[in-house]
Amino acid sequence: METTLQLILRVSIGSALFYAFYALLLRQTTFFRLNRVYLLAAILLPVLFAVFPLQYTVLVKGSAPAQTEDWGELFKASNPIPDDQLLPADNGLSWSSVLIAVYATGLFLLAMRLLLQSIKPIRLILTHKKERTGSYPIVENRHFSVPFSFFNHIFIHPEYHKQEDLDVILAHEEVHIRERHWIDLLVIELFTLAFWFNPISWLLEQAIKQNHEYLADHGVLCRGQSPARYQLLLVNQLMGMQVLGLSNNLNFALGPTRLNMMKKQKTSRKQLLRFGLLFPVVAGLLFAFAKPEYKTQGKTQELETQNTSLAVTTKKQIVITGIVVDEKGEPLPGASIVMRGTTTGTVADMDGKFQLTVPENSRGFDASFVGYETKENTISIEQKEKSTEKSVTLKFVMERAVTAISTEYHEGDIPPPPPPPVPDEMKTKDGEPVFIIVEDMPQYPGGSYGFSKFIHDETEKAKSQNPGLKGEVTIGFTVLADGSTSAYKILKSSKLKHVDETAVYLVKQQENWKPGKQRGKAVPVDYAIKIEF
Fold first, then answer.
1. What crossing angle do the helices spanning 163-178 and 227-236 adopt, rounded to 10°?
2. Count of domains forming the chain
């Protein structure tokens, strides 16, 4: 919802700036063709700038890793909250729901209006006999009293026009068809439908249709038509009504301004410099709508390999075999097992089993898996002395970890960049392969900054709708392998039911995450978050 509102706001601001530029500097000029291009740009460019923002790079310092709190036992003991309890206590309509309903209603009504307006001309085209003037068909009908063009057809009421007026009327409408003014009308009608609530969209529609009439008037007068006779014809049509949005009507915007534009001297070419003032407007919009791409400042840190000599220089080797399982005894395929202090390691197979050849004087080993606490295991001297085959068996029992998410947010903060990708394989200076622990924690859209901003905005919205909200709630949830969230639990209650329910409902509005992965395989991860009202 927030992204949609931001998009609508950006387009509205952009179109308002373009229209203000036109109204102040271009509307009174006779650069009708350039104005036509400009008005189309005033519709399309704000949309393009908002939907496809310019990218620029910002160098920032990397963020600290997330800290793990001791919520594991409480997370296991807590029961998930049923979905029917994940609604606010009052179950009332939110402002966002009301706005969406109002917007959808307006969009539907205007779309139906445009559709109903277009049905009659299309039916007349299909059912009435058509004559031709040049390359354009004429539809004579008694339904519409005012002449107009609809796409490449000219509609005219035969009883309302004298024969000597037909040549002028047809010349006017032919300009609309020849220059394909219907393209502009289609674009502005779609824009007005999408942004019907924005008065600027209606002003742009008025400006485009008015400029079309300037172009058609200019085209008629360039053929040698008498200005006085032409203006008299227009005045006689003054009482006619507009036919529909997708048509160019002979009497549209007829008034002193349009009549004066016919007599106005051609604007000097020097005034074309006014268009040069548009560049700061476009540059300002590009900058305002630009999307930053954050990169870590400084050199990429190299992987430490000081202790790798231990693994490659010792001649006597032993074989370490073992298994990695979870608390229920289920294997954890893909778990990383590393000899402590080195880059020597391996990965558990589909049964959770592993085998690793290490120097005989090796002691400690660590097993890690996304969403679980890292486990340590040490080989004792007794084990190695009793092992005649130089082989040792280890077992790692992994426990689920609950990661606490920081919700600290300050307006104007720069979101930290994502961590750089880890290469699949690296080599030491001696040419030996280096084992890389490929573990990716889940990522919320926009990273930790995006999640903090989401919580901040939702909390402020909840407090504005219910100023009496006060208290702290710690909520646990699981990011599943498909990125969705589930198993919402109250780990620490505020002692107030409506505060707890509001906090859970608030957190549940989060978007889907990019799931955590253990060596490329998506896995579930548990989180805990504190909500303060």
1. 90
2. 2
